């Protein structure tokens, strides 16, 4: 009788068990890796939701890389060209989150920017066509002939511009401190220096390598329909060195000289010393013309219109224009390139690191009918 060998089936059984054990071990290791990845993702999620210094949202990877890589340590990993003449020269692009933070703080502390029309462009130059005579129109019957209307007259607005710069500095020790909020510090410093410089230019700028301020425009006593386009109307104070005996009447005349459409949203602009004099003015019934804001955050008002203090406005004096009134959103245009650039300089002022920030900004009167002035003159 033939006898079969029992060893071969037994070996196959042991091989199957070994394979099952190996598979279970591999699956266990894979589960461990998955749990570790999930744990890491949870930690990242908790960090992303954690409030940052100043109460803002967690910075994006671009902002974090810019702050830790370039601002703190100066790693040259994000070089981009920002010179319009030479493509190989430039600074470093500020991430949009920081640039928007700078813009928001500029609007909060720059008086004219807060009330003017601001256009952000991607190029150094900006031009705008506006009509100076309007489009002629007329009434006709249902079947009447439609005569050709007159051609409107256009004017081109090309705000003079210049490169605005700020150069704040921080010690390397401050930058190495992980608790030092570089983002907020840099935005505050740049916005503060930009605001001081542009505030003066938007009022008194010459138009040469800088914006042309609204006080740089020519003026006339002629009404809107009789003045040259671009020329502002002024009302004289009645006294060579100040106001006459009834300054409140001059202020009322100034308000009423503005078209009713522009008076919606109109604002007074003067410096604090002029405002100190205006606050003392009273109406015939003894009430003050100036009224404080009733609610916190509400602007103070003069004859019912908000008052903005701009310290670059001139004081009351002979031939000066200490008070402006108008709808600046319609009357003054600010054109700026949308990106701020920063050059990190750790060499010039050791042991401090300077951050040379630049931005191209232009400005000009847009609608000369929308801004009126008081001139100290007879």
From TrEMBL:
InterPro entries: Phage_capsid (IPR024455), Phage_capsid-like_C (IPR054612). It is found in: Virion. Its main location: virion. Residues 90-375 form the Phage capsid-like C-terminal domain. This is Phage capsid protein.
